[in-house]
Design goal:
This protein is mainly α and 171 residues long. The protein is built from 7 helices and no strands. The chain has a domain at 1-51.
């Protein structure tokens, strides 16, 4: 992992912990400590942001999550209709978690709730629908993308099995 994300790890160790990564390779510090610190780095910093955009890591995490989910549930929950004509299987552009701090996430949630409250009050007072709630963009990682693609594949497979969709003839 260090060979793939070395510069991000080195930067985060220096910026977050004030530690030079070289100390671990010269024997001044223990690799047990390195491993512990590595996994405690904040998700909005360079290393964890790069890690969740990595396809190999995302595949591993997704597989582990699926194993846990299948042990707890036998059926997937259906997507709720939003009333809009949106393709739920389209793959959004990846967005890193870097600089998406917990504070920023909380502010986005608060802003969206305030907008929803304003829409409700306008609807009650005027009898007309208020302005739509503008959602803030959230990080979208490779883990999310692989999960969405797997869900799409499952739905297409189900549609073929029940006869709603026919396999395309080979070209």
């Amino acid at each position: 992992m260090f060979d793939r994300f070395g510069s991000e790890i080195a930067y985060d160790f220096r910026a977050e912990l004030g530690i030079d990564v070289i100390d671990y390779f010269t024997g001044e510090r223990s690799f047990v400590e390195f491993h512990a610190f590595l996994h405690e780095l904040p998700t909005h910093r360079k290393f964890k942001s790069a890690l969740v955009l990595d396809e190999e890591y995302a595949g591993y995490v997704y597989t582990e999550r699926e194993k846990a989910r299948m042990a707890l549930e036998e059926e997937m929950e259906e997507l709720e209709d939003s009333g809009e004509e949106v393709d739920p299987w389209r793959r959004p552009a990846l967005r890193s978690q870097e600089d998406y701090t917990p504070e920023l996430a909380a502010l986005h949630i608060l802003d969206e709730h305030i907008q929803a409250l304003i829409k409700t009050v306008i609807g009650l007072v005027t009898g007309k629908s208020g302005p739509d709630v503008q959602k803030h963009p959230r990080p979208y990682t490779m883990i999310d993308a692989i999960g969405l693609e797997a869900e799409r594949d499952d739905m297409h497979d189900f549609a073929r099995r029940v006869g709603l969709r026919k396999d395309k003839p080979p070209a």
